[in-house]
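Re: weekly structure request thread

Next one in the queue (449 aa):
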Amino acid sequence: MSAAHDDEPLSIAFLAYRGKPHVGGQGVYTRHLTKALSDMGHHVEVLGGQPYPILDDRVPLVELPSLDIYNDYFPMRMPGLWELKDWPDFVEVTSFSLGTFPEPLAFSLRAWKHLHRRVADFDLVQDNQCLGYGLLLMERDGLPVLSTIHHPITVDRRLEMEHADSLWSRFSKARWYAFTRMQSRVAQRMSRVLTVSENSANDTSRDHGVPRDRLHVTPVGVDQDLFRPLPDVERIPGRIITTASADVTMKGLRYLLEALAKLRTERHVELVVIGRAKEGGPSARTIADLGLSDAITFVSGVPDERIIELYSEAQVAVVPSLYEGFSLPAIEAMSCAVPLVATTGGALPEVVGRDGETALVVPPGDSEALAAKIRLALDDADLRARVGAAGRQRVIERWTWRHTAEGTVDQYRALLADTAHIQARRAGGAGTAPRFQHGAAARTGGARR
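Done, posted below.
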């Protein structure tokens, strides 16, 4: 296609190696961004791995089954030989046997195998945090590729290593996170990378070695008409809500649990966690140690409408993370006008705004500070109402999925223009750039008007 035709619809292959639909930023990003792109008239196909994303009816899903080693019911299972059907399966099980997380590499190779036969169907590929070597093969086939990095997983690696409780644990985590070296190599090869905050852009440049001028910030959004206050739903006294998409150090759930234990000595409090409890995981051990089993409810696998009700039932929402590249849970809570207590980890100050105005802010990793700000919110109804209303107004003014989609399309067109110029230079031509025959151009016989 010609980069000059900025008003024409694009055909996009959107890669989602892991698309958990209701919790986890990658699945939410996939679901809402592809819907917004379709609303703008673009054609989007999602190539997805397990857990598969839930998508708008207009967005087709191409299922690329993995060996599903990290499924919710039998995680870390060793696949049988009879399950290995092709060479990406062997890559996946070999990587797993060596102790590293295999999904990004294996999924990228499966996606390349699929797209290798369909190069003419798409104008470009958008990768959602996979950064596997298969992306380089797609580029070699002539497909322009743009990657979104919500935050560099090297941050997860660093935090997990710092909080490891033994040398063996440090070794195991270092081995598991070995895939981040691949992600750095691939990110360095991308001509254009999207990030969701200035903080994430700076961290991506530092950790992955991507030049800052190749990183472009396009914040994520929220459906403000869906995530809204429900005046008919009564707040439950002492109810606190948080989201824990994964039982990992970075999410800081341990510090919220410690704060909850402190508050329970003086009042009735209860915590709803949007997420799945990991049996025998760090949070389960902390809950048992602190005697909090009767004060915590985990909720997962429910539709957005129930999550919105849960927000409306809560007096306070908390994001206790040690680090966030953006934080969808923060803006979802703010959009529901729930007063938010959040840390200053990563990009959260960019997102939640000023302490005492649009959120109540504490340092990361400080359970005493969390308890104090939650106590302040629970004791002051006027403060809750004021901060909740200001938080929703901040979201309305700054973040919608339409804005995200428009910014993303601007990056698509810039990528196509970059690719056209590179091809022209390689061909030794001057003046008019060559016309692509991918995507919409191919479907209309190449005539673009």
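Residues 276 and 300 are 6 Å apart (CA to CA). The chain has a mean pLDDT of 89.
Next request, please.
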